[in-house]
Prior knowledge:
Layout: H1 3-34, E1 38-43, E2 51-56, E3 63-68, E4 75-80, E5 86-93, E6 102-105, E7 110-115, E8 127-132, E9 137-142, E10 144-150, E11 157-162, E12 169-173, E13 179-183, E14 194-203, E15 209-212, E16 219-222, E17 226-231, E18 236-242, E19 249-254, E20 258-263, E21 268-274, H2 292-328
Parallel strand pairs: 5-9, 10-14
Antiparallel strand pairs: 1-21, 2-3, 3-4, 4-5, 6-7, 7-8, 8-10, 11-12, 12-13, 13-14, 15-16, 16-17, 17-18, 19-20, 20-21
Amino acid sequence: xxxxxxxxxxxxxxxxxxxxxxxxxxxxxxxxxxxxxxxxxxxxxxxxxxxxxxxxxxxxxxxxxxxxxxxxxxxxxxxxxxxxxxxxxxxxxxxxxxxxxxxxxxxxxxxxxxxxxxxxxxxxxxxxxxxxxxxxxxxxxxxxxxxxxxxxxxxxxxxxxxxxxxxxxxxxxxxxxxxxxxxxxxxxxxxxxxxxxxxxxxxxxxxxxxxxxxxxxxxxxxxxxxxxxxxxxxxxxxxxxxxxxxxxxxxxxxxxxxxxxxxxxxxxxxxxxxxxxxxxxxxxxxxxxxxxxxxxxxxxxxxxxxxxxxxxxxxxxxxxxxxxxxxxxx
Length: 330
């Protein structure tokens, strides 16, 4: 090929490659923008007014459990996640539930209730309750009660995590300036207090719930406004992101590749949100601050930009080809 023709062709090919890369980048950006939070369902049962714990069933597909905060009947509600309908209840006996704040399910399908709420930090009767998850239908169970004490005095705790592989149990206190992460003994006893031992490092502030990922390699810890991803090996923060707006964001449970979050209040929403992306460092990832107007503009400009750059690239390549063809036939 004549070197003069090559000089025309190569820039066109390079520009076309650039256009392809740009189109791919913009498509990925648009896909990421669409993968935001979505309302899955509403908890329309009039008895569910203060949903304060949420746990996805291990044995019953599409079912999650929730429980009300203090001052309500000792009922665990089985919820069809897709519709929000109550499909079962379990009345819990075996102790007096005072301030229930969290739910978790272990690898064996045992449902754990954290009766650990203590706004005045004065309780001496905090406890965990455990029984096999019941699924659909109405049931009554006598739960095993495990008394809890803390090595640093009484604490207000609204988060319980049960590791899906090892069964290790972790509590996180709700502190204004940061919570304390507590590890419970590997084997709990019903006959005496189980000492929760504070771990090194501080947890996020105002923690209202937490859960492990399906494989136990990450812990998702929420406050009223934020979701934190923690590394359970040292409890360092790997990422943080805003939670969807909710009246009083209280709950979180992990699906395979997303999170379900819920709120207190009547007719409250179950919202599916993406798992915050972690960064190589342990520093929190900054939350996005794009305004709605800016987001709308970005979406609207993607298609025109792709068209313009694609047209320019195609024109350059086509022009180079025409020039070559013309030169050859002179």
